[in-house]
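can u do me a favor
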């Protein structure tokens, strides 16, 4: 019987760089989710509802790729501006409906 001594090979997750036709780097759904601090299912839902601009690459449903600028544009559209403090009420209003005893 012949045994093959196979040492375990380290598994490294290869970082792939996806570029569009203009050479701009694109990110995956997981990377977009990390940037927006949401789940990947939220990103898929945003893409399905066309709230987040994206590109599908490949056959059938394809892989979803997103420009980092589109993630930032989505973030800017979702930003809510803070309101300023309301003006204090004027003190010289006639209060005819109140009676002081």
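np, heres the sequence
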């Amino acid at each position: 019987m012949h045994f093959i001594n196979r040492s375990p090979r380290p598994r490294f997750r290869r970082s792939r760089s996806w570029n569009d036709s203009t050479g701009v780097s694109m990110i995956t759904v997981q990377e977009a989710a990390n940037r927006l601090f949401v789940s990947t299912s939220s990103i898929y839902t945003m893409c399905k509802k066309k709230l987040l601009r994206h590109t599908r690459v490949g056959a059938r449903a394809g892989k979803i790729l997103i420009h980092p600028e589109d993630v930032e544009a989505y973030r800017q559209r979702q930003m809510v501006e803070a309101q300023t403090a309301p003006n204090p009420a004027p003190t010289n209003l006639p209060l005819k409906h109140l009676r002081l005893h």
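The first strand starts at residue 18 and ends at 19. hope that helps!!
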